[in-house]
Amino acid sequence: MPITLGINGFGRIGRCTLAHIAEAARNDVRVVKINATGPIETNAHLLRYDSVHGRFGNDVVVDGDTLDLGRGPIKVFSTYDPQELDWDGVDVVLECTGKFNDGVKSSVHLERGAKKVLISAPASNVDRTVVYGVNHRDLLETDRLVSNGSCTTNCLAPLAKVLNDAIGIERGIMTTIHSYTGDQPTLDRRHSDLYRARAAAMAMIPTSTGAAKALGLVLPELAGKLD
Questions:
Q1: Which CATH number does the domain housing residue 167 bear?
Q2: pLDDT category, 142, cuts 50, 70, 90?
Q3: Is 146 in contact with 128 (CB distance < 8 Å)?
Q4: What pLDDT, in 10s, does the model give residues 165-208?
Q5: How far is Cα 161 from Cα 202, in angstroms, rounded to an integer?
Q6: For 153-167, how does the pLDDT look when each residue is reduced to its tens digit (9 = 90+)?
Q7: Are 129 and 205 within one domain?
């Protein structure tokens, strides 16, 4: 039996995850439910045509409140209230909204019927933080709330592990250069962070990252060694 997945949040990460699973024609996992705010037709269009990855390789059929990518209907919800979600029959919820980056908040998915939750961001109060290929073998059957860390942590951890295993790391400093995100405007406009008030494509915006700290959750032997 395939692992059944639910996706909460159908933005950049949620759509890319669904597209990858569908185009890979994987038989070991199946997306059965999605919570995507906004009109289902709009979300289907964004899945079909991606400015970075191009045209989606499968047909996307909308039928009422379901999407069909050729492997059976996917039930689509559209709610901001997690208490209205129905994850009955879902093995793992992929928490991709960026709004529930805490084990306490994400536990609502367990209450709503999911067996486990994988958070697509750094998160506190979780059973484990995992970077695949680095420490995923440490996962236990009892781990129900798991964080996948940040994109930067997923870049840093494999390199740090290889270096530490080969020659050892005594101390290090890391710097990340990040593409701009949906939080940044295309034109100057008000923002609580004045750096981020600047047009994204015309400014280099300094910011902080928790990746070095999060590395210690993935590789405990390197905790406190990188800034």
A1: 3.30.360.10
A2: very high
A3: yes
A4: 999 999 999 998 988 888 889 999 999 999 999 999 998 888 88
A5: 35
A6: 999 999 999 999 999
A7: no
Instruction: Give a yes or no: residue 197 inside a domain.
Output: yes
Helices 40-48 & 12-23, crossing angle to 10 degrees?
Answer: 60
**Measured between alpha carbons, how far is 66 from 60 in angstroms, rounded to an integer?**
10
Which CATH number goes with the domain that contains 124? 3.40.50.720
Query: Which tokens hold the place of 125?
Result: 């109060």
- Of the listed 16, 96, 151, 155, which one is catalytic? 151
227 assigned to some structural domain: no
Q: Active site includes 151?
A: yes
Per-residue pLDDT tens digits for 42-88: 999 999 999 999 999 899 999 999 999 988 999 999 999 999 999 99
Residue 18's domain spans which residues?
3-147
